[in-house]
Known about the structure:
about 0% strand
Amino acid sequence: MLGRSNPKDKEETKRAKTDNFSGGYYNSPSDFEVIERLQQLAKEKEIPTAQLALAWMMSKPEITAPIVGATKPGHIEDAVSALSVKLSASEIKHLEELYQPHRVIGF
């Protein structure tokens, strides 16, 4: 599975083309189905997928110290804007229902 990309992608990022290690973490068909749900809901809400993903993360009380790697000003803007995105219980369920846990790698 290492280095495998989503066959639906027409373009790959530079990282996807060169990082053969990270592809082994999250690169199963169900991962892409979750991403498609995220993209669909973001489109319905007319917000960037990053904002929706961050809003989902903030809906989880068990996540007490999120690490958000901002490398561009837009990343900070998405993080701040995500604070005002409220997800309903049904939207959260819709985003989560296809998720399949992954085995722990590296230990």
